Amino acid sequence: MRLPLVTGALFALLAVMSGAFGAHGLRHVVSQRSLEVFQTAVTYQMYHAIALVLVALLSGLGLSRRLLGLSVGFFFAGIILFSGSLYVLVLTDLRWVGMITPVGGVCFLAGWTLILTAGIRGQANRDRG
Hints:
83% helix, mainly alpha, 129 residues
């Protein structure tokens, strides 16, 4: 599973760059509340970039590649929809984009649920023997 490793590292790199841009480039351009929203986008992007790298590592433990692969898709979609919509909201002030953000949050939940399921099933399979 090289794709989640590479994608996770890329999203982490972009999160660091976005965080620096927000802290230095937006400080005097947008409101304090908008900076907080931007930081939330950066934080969730970083968490889920790390999750993508984690999935790449978990694939070596014999867990379901199907479930892990699905989690990758949901994390990728979550980053784009959740963090991406918040970035667009702050940078363009298009309020309707905020309606997309919860869909990204649901994608994050689905990704974590799939990892949980893969872990439970993997343990059950090892217990059986």
